[in-house]
Amino acid sequence: MQTASISQFDSRPAAKPAPSIEPLRALVANDMDAVNREIIARMASDVSLIPELASHLIAAGGKRIRPLLTLGAARLCGYGSDKHVLLAACVEFIHTATLLHDDVVDESDRRRGNATANVLWGNQPSVLVGDFLFTRAFQLMVETGSLEVLRILAGASSEIAEGEVLQLVIANDMTSGEAEYLKVIKAKTAALFAAACRVGAVIADRPLAEAQALDDFGHNLGIAFQLVDDALDYASDGATLGKNTGDDFREGKITLPVLLAFAKGNEAEKDFWRRVIERPEEQAEADWQQALAYMERHGAIQETLARARHYGQKAHQALGLFAPGAVRDAMAEAVDFAIERAL
Amino acid sequence: MQTASISQFDSRPAAKPAPSIEPLRALVANDMDAVNREIIARMASDVSLIPELASHLIAAGGKRIRPLLTLGAARLCGYGSDKHVLLAACVEFIHTATLLHDDVVDESDRRRGNATANVLWGNQPSVLVGDFLFTRAFQLMVETGSLEVLRILAGASSEIAEGEVLQLVIANDMTSGEAEYLKVIKAKTAALFAAACRVGAVIADRPLAEAQALDDFGHNLGIAFQLVDDALDYASDGATLGKNTGDDFREGKITLPVLLAFAKGNEAEKDFWRRVIERPEEQAEADWQQALAYMERHGAIQETLARARHYGQKAHQALGLFAPGAVRDAMAEAVDFAIERAL
Quick count: other Cβ atoms within 10 Å of Cβ A240? Predict the structure, then answer.
């Protein structure tokens, strides 16, 4: 594990308690238990490799932020029945399916602190079990009986796949810019956050304005979340987040911290970035520390986090349509948590 | 390309003209043109790699037997609107998505006479474009506005994925038997044939009995189709079918011809099958001809084709519920075509 310089993250006043996702988790705790039961029930298959492989990733946890958002959105809309549980499980299945395929495509070896499924079982079952989870997600949607829910989640799934292909196309290509990067993270991350929130209003049969507000909320939160993730990849400790620090760097992935450091760098730095990103397989040991140093010199991480805060603000604004109260507060705090976890 | 002994296939009286899928194709020709336009329109994406890669496989043709069946089933049910076109395109997208993932999983290098997408573009885009096509399929389903259609096709998709995992689990395992083989082909092939036919009755709003009859028809046709495919892998010429003869053998795939030859073989033959199937990477040049000779000795191909005819008969019977006429005749002939293409 590389030790990263995290001093650049330490700029927040010490007094305020750190925002947390726990208030939201506490508010929907019973629902979330039902979601977890649903997830386990729906992974079942006579083909035992399927639940084995799927549960390796699902049991490893992760924050379950997407299903939490679906439950929170449904609660915010005053939904009183039980289909939001199916939807939340469905959203987590879509997410899990994309993680399985992501790890194959990125040849990742660690996720959530564990060896990835592709390392433990190989690429072949990871691809196929990903497919299986994805079909299960659609079966769950069908059970909600809402064509509008299906339209939204099928659209989001399609956008995710499109974003993943785009990310692959621009990988290692230092001529791609911020516009393309934003397109990628909107598609691969924000689309599912937006859909996860929006369906809460749809299932509760609320007016279009509320569905749209929750869509905006999720969309902006999703962008903020991914920006922070991309910043963390250049700073956090792999043991803490269960993600390898420097993964993006070693894969030559184009993320905002790289684009910012590149844009502000002199010619020698630009040459450095082209070399390490375009031919990541030729990276030397010292390149990682050099990359961190260039980022610090140009405040690339701070600038990435500032952008995340900007989107976080937009997410906060979108909540304005809803009545004040514990649920809205918890959803708002989830935004701050998504951003401040970097600090 | 290996030259295969095809003498064992030549047992049909010479007089009768070969059954053909052309009558069905002619009956739904206009609809099929609409399906092809829909397919091209729905592959579109700003991410140009998506239509490039998808059209490589889709343009290469193949028989489009699944969408033909959907169109035929809708016609048989007297359907008069245009949603069957969406459904047929959707069924072909599901099929294409599974082919893309199959070729990655099997490490295939040829399909429909061309190099596979995974060879031309690599595994990563093949996985992701497969995902994309799959999501597009669901978007098409949503547009039909029928939750029952979604239920059927989501269920079939899930069964396919489950079957693919099972196939992977029992690959190279000579202790797996006919029961497991049948389970695999029912899931990976018959499920989509059954769904492709059934949705024709659903979209036409016909009684459950007709939906069930078309389901039975497609299910049995699908099993017959796969049995013949598995027989052809040990006989046909790669240049004709666009599939490498001997692919299954080289991958150590357990198919019925192998299971039958193994069951009827003496101890030396059993040792041979265990060696070539369990450790296909150690196969020698002469093993392929040896395998063909053992199969011929025990009539393994003929027996596989006899089983296919048995399922074909069941498919014919399922059509009995429908009024006689050109459409029913064409659907019946499609069954015979699926079987007799082996001769």
Answer: 11
**Closest listed residue to residue A228, CA positions, set A7, A5, A1, A9:** A9
| pLDDT by residue, tens only, chain B of 343 residues | 344 444 445 555 556 789 999 999 999 999 999 999 999 999 999 999 999 998 888 877 678 999 999 999 999 999 999 999 999 999 999 999 999 998 888 887 877 678 888 888 888 999 999 999 999 999 999 999 999 999 999 999 999 999 999 999 998 899 999 999 999 999 999 999 999 999 999 999 999 999 999 999 999 999 999 999 999 999 755 444 545 688 899 989 999 999 999 999 999 999 999 999 999 999 999 999 999 999 999 999 999 999 999 999 999 999 999 999 999 999 999 999 999 986 5
Q: A139 and B162 in contact by Cβ < 8 A?
A: no
Query: With contacts defined as CB-CB under 8 Å, which chain A residues touch B158?
Result: 132, 135-136, 138-139
Phi, psi of B330 (to 5 degrees): -70, -40
pLDDT, one tens digit per residue, over B9-67 is 555 555 678 999 999 999 999 999 999 999 999 999 999 999 999 888 887 767 899 99
DSSP state of A111: E
Class of domain A18-340: mainly alpha
CB atoms within 10 A of CB A208: 10
Residue carrying structure tokens 């997600």:
A137
CB contact under 8 A, A128 and B161: yes
Contact, B203 vs B173, CB < 8 A? no
Residues 6+ apart with CB under 8 A from A312: A220, A221, A224, A335, A336, A338, A339
> CA B193: distance to chain centroid?
8
A-B CB pairs within 8 A amount to 129
Under an 8 Å CB criterion, which residues of B touch A?
45-47, 49-50, 98, 101, 104-105, 123-125, 127-129, 131-132, 134-136, 138-139, 141-142, 145, 147, 150-151, 154-155, 157-158, 160-162, 164-166, 168-169
Distance between CA B101 and CA B57 in Å, rounded?
A: 12
Structure tokens that stand for A162 in this block: 């499109």
Residues 6 or more apart from B286 whose CB is under 8 A from it?
none
How would you classify residue A145: left for phi > 0, otherwise alpha for psi between -120 and 50, otherwise beta? Answer: left
CB contact under 8 A, A166 and B127: no
Task: Please give the biggest Cα pair distance in chain B.
Answer: 61
> Which chain B residues touch A135 with a CB distance below 8 Å?
154, 157-158, 160-161
Alpha helices in chain A (DSSP H): 22-27, 29-43, 49-59, 65-76, 83-106, 117-120, 123-144, 147-170, 178-185, 191-203, 208-232, 238-241, 247-251, 256-264, 267-278, 287-297, 300-318, 326-340
